Amino acid sequence: MVSIRTIFFAATLLFAGGCYSLSPHEGSSLEPVDRPDADWPRPPADRVDALIARLPSTRTVESGAEVPVEFIKTPEGLLRLHPEPNAAFRRPQVDPTRPMFRRIDPIDGRFLTQWHASVFDRIGEFEAEIRAEAGTEMPDRDPERPPHRFTDVGLTISLPDKLDPAAKGLVLHLPATNTTSYEHEVTEHFERRGWAVARLRVATSISEVSERWSCVFGLRLASEIPLDLEPPPIPEDTTPEEQQRFKLQASKAIMAELDAQVDLALSERPPYDARGLDSDDHSELETLGQIIAHDLDRIMATNAYAASALIEAIEAKAPWFADRPLIICGFSAGAVAAPTIASHLINERPDRTIALVLIGGGVNIFEMSQNSTFTDGDIRLRKSDEPRLTPDVQAAINDAYVRTSYLDPIHTVKAVRNVPTLHAYATSDTWVPTPNGNQLNRLHGNLDQLVHDGDHQTLFFFIPGQASRLVRWAERAVQAP
Asked: Which residues pair with 70 in a beta bridge?
């Protein structure tokens, strides 16, 4: 006998799966507003050779052989490509109890800048000080929280499975923060239609490239964490092996306590502290908005530089892609980053045919960070257990942020008005709030809309059913066969 729950679930699938309506752009078109690269923030590039020296020059491949790693210098940083990339995906099974589930992509390399290196080194210095004050060398951390390694720094990239001369063009997939299997149903449809798909996991956390954030983090460690973490005495009459095991367990316990206190300190004092400020503190609110804009512009610029480096690396291996269409397909966080990435690529490649497919996009990253029910992107303005800022304070910070920012999509979306764009978004989205998605639509002015009657999760859950429509739209937009 079929249960009521099963009937309800099937009815929900049937109803929500069809709740998409396509609204093509009609009426007059808005003119683009350029965002020249000359005014973009750029990381220093005088120590790229030093970055290379810190990274392993070879990698052990499946055969057991040591194969050289490929390093590609760019004006903004370094692209590291791994030999023998593993293009096989691990596909999780559908779990109906979880509306979203992750999918693990292969990592064929990373793009990093000196911004990344500076943040990594600064945090490492503070952690070393804390370890020294704890009175032990602490040779091993808790295995559940492995140490952050320099080889893990940077934005991860995945090359196309095949660099086929017969490919129609290149799709640049910009995944969501937690890549889901649902979005891959779309990119796999592109592949079945003869497109090569590359992937770039965009930076979403302001802490990745902001030295200011890392210094606040480190100072907090050095000044606020109580260090009553002396290791307990080793029992008498133990063998050397037992002593070593005892020291190791004590070390792990100390690091676990330190990790817990770091987490507590982060919740107690936010990196961008707006507590105690009110709408009359115009200068302080203005400064805070400017600081946030400065740090977020670094994030957006880094994403664009990484995309450019990835495309250049692909074209170096497969020159035929240089004159073929490029489709930028962004999901959630990737859709938020996509207009800025497209703006940069247009500046670099003005003759390249480009189209944008955005799933769950929006503009004004600061406003989204404060209103999203999913993440704040490390833009923390208050303690985690405190109420939200008053509307007047948030509005004052936001006004300064918008005036100062150069690369938020609230500005760069205007630079891609001549780029054919399709935006699929939900009417009740609280992760990338719907008002910010609607603002993207208004500011672009020339895009087509695929509207889903649901929220962010259902938008993604049912997007595989729209894969054929999305691909057909993109191929028409770039006039691909």
From this structure: 81
Question: Structure tokens of 453?
Answer: 């009657």
Q: How many CA atoms lie within 13 A of 391 on its CB side?
A: 0
- The closest alpha carbon to 294, from 185, 403, 174, belongs to 403
Q: How far does CA 449 lie from the centroid of its chain?
A: 24
List the beta bridge partners of residue 149: none
The strand pairing partners of 21, in sequence order, are: 451
φ and ψ at residue 298, rounded to 5 degrees: -60, -45
Q: Rounded distance, CA 431 to CA 360, Å? A: 9
Token pair, residue 167, equals 């490919």
Query: Would you give the DSSP letter of residue 479?
Result: T
Backbone angles phi, psi at 111, to 5 degrees: -110, 130
Residue identified by tokens 């709740």 is: 19
- Nearest 10 degrees: CA dihedral of 458, 174, 419, 455? 10
pTM for the whole structure: 0.83
d(Cα 305, Cα 317) in Å, to the nearest integer?
Answer: 19
Closest Cα to residue 349, out of 326, 318, 317? 326
In this structure, the number of other CB atoms found within 10 A of the CB of residue 142 comes to: 16
- What digits encode the pLDDT tens for the residues 193-212? 999 999 999 998 777 787 66
- Is the per-residue pLDDT at 364 higher than 60? yes
List 80's β-bridge partners, or say none: 71, 110
Q: What is the model's pLDDT at position 226?
A: 45
Poorest-pLDDT segment among 125-139, 172-186, 370-384: 125-139
Element (H, E) at 198: strand 196-200
Which burial class, exposed, middle or buried, applies to 176 when counting CB atoms under 10 A from its CB (0-12, 13-18, 19+)? buried
378 phi/psi in degrees, rounded to 5: 70, 10
Tokens of 249: 């367990």
- Nearest 5°: the CA angle 275, 281, 285 is 70
Q: Tokens standing for 248?
A: 């190791």
